[in-house]
Amino acid sequence: MNAFSLDGRTALVTGANTGIGQAIAVAMGRAGARVICAGRSSCAETVGMIGDGGAGAEELTLDFADPMAAKDAFDGRDIDILVNNAGIIRRADSVDFSEADWDDVIDVNLKAVFFTCQAFARAALARDKGSPAGIVNIASLLSFQGGIRVPSYTASKHGVAGLTKILANEWAGRGINVNAIAPGYIETNNTQALRADPDRNAAILDRIPAGRWGQASDIAGTAVFLASPAAAYIHGAVLNVDGGWLAR
What is the number of alpha carbons within 13 Å of residue 162 lying toward its C-beta? Predict the structure, then answer.
């Protein structure tokens, strides 16, 4: 048996239409999983990238502006792996930050993560088929640090790290692994503003020991590992994939 294989398993990846979510969905497909690619916009491109070579893929429309969007997503579906990747960010000085921007980010990045985990766990525990289930949450370096001009994002990602630990405490003994990945500075839509700012871009690169921004594919292999049998005894971990940023 290949301990890193996802053969015979089905994964639901949120925010799979682009960036980190797309890379994770494709990597899980290549590792043998059937992948349900969920997003608020079409995931047809991701489904096409996975292709027919493995167990196949399908798309599912979920908009986490409604934090309860996934409450029925696991009904009638035998899903073994959940990747909570969908997220948004708002930038403004904390003295100017609006209530709307606070609520929008917390709803998508934290409230939706909890209730999606809850719906997944209820289905997995009711199924009781004897094989393990796994959740991989996408946290952030700002699960550990404060950042600048992103108060709701920082609060939400601290919350994701905490949720990962409490859910691991409750579900590890019941056959559900719950872990998280804390990506470093990755080239995605969320970091476009930083990369376009010459001063911020230079300051970030100066601190990264690896000397480069990360790629979405750098996160994908870690997600496959945490969802695989090879990670069966890993519970409640928040694994940094940051080019050495936090070691600096």
Answer: 10
- Mean pLDDT of the 200-223 span: 96
DSSP line for 31-89: TT-EEEEEESS--HHHHHHHTTSSS-EEEEE--TTSTTTTTTTTTT----EEEE-----
> Which pLDDT does position 130 carry in this prediction?
58
What three-state secondary structure class fits 98?
Answer: coil
Looking at this protein, which amino acid is placed at residue 56? G
> Which residues are known to be catalytic?
153
User: Is the separation of the CB atoms in 137 and 163 below 8 Å?
Assistant: yes
Q: What is the CATH number of domain 10-240?
A: 3.40.50.720
- Non-local (6+) Cβ contacts of 190 within 8 A are 19, 87, 88, 89
If you search the block for the tokens 């986490």, which residue do you land on? 64
Tell me the pLDDT of the chain averaged across its residues. Answer: 95
CB 215 within 8 A of CB 242: no
**Start-to-end CA span in the chain (Å):** 38
On whether the CB atoms of residues 121 and 73 are closer than 8 A, the answer is no
pLDDT for position 79: 97
Can you give the pLDDT at residue 53?
63
Helices and strands per DSSP (H, E), number in the chain: 8, 7
* 106-151 confidence digits (pLDDT tens): 999 999 999 999 999 999 999 865 568 999 999 999 999 999 999 9
State phi, psi for 89 to the nearest 5 degrees: -145, 145
Strands 81-84 and 57-61: unpaired
